[in-house]
Amino acid sequence: MTRGPADDAHDRVSGLVDQLLVDFPPKSTNPTTFLKAQFDRGLAWVHFPEGQGGLGLNPRLRTLIDEKLAAAGAPDPVPGNLIGHGMCAPTIAAWGTRAQRARYLRPLFAGDEVWCQLFSEPGAGSDFAGLSTSAVKRADKWVVNGQKVWTSRGHLARFGLLVARTDPNVVKHAGLTAFIADMHADGVEVRPLRQMTGQAEFNEVYLSDVQLTADQVLGEPGEGWRVALTTLMNERQFIGGVMPEKGSDAISALVDTWAGLPVDRRSAAIRDEVVRLWTRGQALRLTNLRANQKQQMGDPGPEASISKVMSASLNKDVYEVVLRLLGAEGMLFGRYDGTAADMQARSEHLTLAFLRSRANSIEGGTTEVMLNILGERVLGLPSDVRVDRDRPWKEVPRN
After folding, report:
1. CB 95 within 8 A of CB 210
2. Using alpha carbons only, what angle is made at residue 311 by residues 85 and 105, rounded to the nearest 5 degrees?
3. How far out from the chain centre does Cα 345 lie?
4. φ, ψ for residue 188 (rounded to 5)?
């Protein structure tokens, strides 16, 4: 059989992974040291350019890398920096200068610097382009003032991907600019938002005369909307395309709860409901497979948005049934005492999962907005009436 370039690339990557594991045995190597070595060998994001954590190869080779590293017990960099890996890194790779990619990607991948998104505002969530946080050019600095909200991991972040309004005299989509914001800079204040689960995953961030330099602009001034679309597309892929380990998803929690019921409580009606939800879960799993294949080709398609909508709906429906199956036990919910141990114990509790599932239809794009996007851009349906489409942002009425 004739070998081709794909076979050579496969062998090259496989050899690099094997040598990485020899030079830095995961069991005896500090995780950060291992991840930096992985980045330096082009095995962080294999489709990124050489010298920037990649080898310029087909993104499908990422599966080979992940499987070999997981089998060897190598550290997983994603859980500690979800926003950074899922949304910020692809955006920096797509829009950053060579200097920005060299400065930010390696410490992001290794977990030295956690990232967050500074997108949503109290008056600009679903209508993201309507945001009012301003960045005004003064001499050689941009001075930022405004408020962001629902900022996941903002309290842990070293940097944030910020979008602010730099020109109020043009239509709302055209007057935005993206920045890399230092979360430790003067004028940045992060306040936690306590959820009904007792956790504080999200934050509100106040920006008061925060000064940003020219090398913190991502893309060109006025390109913020296009930069944000890159981030949001990858966010939907990251959320909607997740492939949980077998036995760790909501459907497994439902099946396990059903199996643990006394025989006299397993009615035919409830059994049919469990089966219907299981079937929906399988359809979602197959859609996620398609979304992941598109991502591996470097083209996050509409499947990711479909998965995002359907997973949000499915999770809520599943955990509603789980709580019904639990009966009175489903009303139990431990008191949050602020300790990491307590948080971890509660994160595994089905009641916590039920409460947390309420956020699924909001985070990463509300279900209503996602349905509009799918209807307009995938099905070709007429778009909503937008009376502010051709008006300068400063003339659009706001609350």
Report:
1. no
2. 5
3. 24
4. -100, 120
Residue 239, exposed/middle/buried by CB under 10 A (0-12, 13-18, 19+)? buried
Give the three-state DSSP class for 88: helix
Rounded distance, CA 114 to CA 131, Å? 24
Tokens describing residue 224: 């913020």
Catalytic residue among 121, 204, 235, 303: 235
What is the three-class DSSP state of 122? coil
- Report the C-alpha gap between 312 and 62 in whole angstroms: 27
φ/ψ of residue 356, rounded to 5? -65, -30
| pLDDT tens digits in sequence order for the chain, 399 residues long | 567 778 889 999 999 999 999 999 999 999 999 999 999 999 999 999 999 999 999 888 998 999 999 999 999 999 889 999 989 999 999 999 999 999 999 999 999 999 999 999 998 877 888 999 999 999 999 999 999 999 999 999 999 999 999 999 999 999 999 999 999 999 999 999 988 877 888 899 999 999 999 999 999 999 999 999 999 888 766 665 555 555 457 888 899 888 888 888 888 898 999 999 999 988 888 887 777 766 665 555 677 778 888 889 999 999 999 988 888 777 776 544 444 454 444 335 788 888 888 888 888 778 888 888 889 888 889 987 777 778 898 988 876
By the 8 A CB rule, do 257 and 280 touch?
no
CB atoms within 10 A of CB 266: 13
Q: Looking at 43-113, list the stretches that DSSP marks H as alpha helix, in order from N- to C-terminal side.
A: 61-71, 82-83, 89-95, 98-110
Of the chain, the end-to-end C-alpha distance in Å amounts to 68
CB 142 within 8 A of CB 163: no
Distance CA 249, CA 73 (A): 22
Neighbours of 220 (CB within 10 A): 12
Q: What share of the chain is helix, strand, coil (3-state, %, to 5)?
A: 50, 15, 35
For 258, half-sphere exposure in the C-beta direction (CA atoms, 13 angstrom radius) is: 22
329: annotated active-site residue: no
Q: How far apart are CA 86 and CA 238, in angstroms?
A: 6
Q: How many residues does the chain have?
A: 399
The half-sphere exposure of 108 on its side-chain side, counting CA atoms within 13 A, is 28
Cα-Cα-Cα-Cα torsion 261, 267, 273, 276, nearest 10 degrees, comes to 90
**Residue 85 and residue 98: Cα distance in Å, rounded?**
18
Chain centroid to CA 182: 20
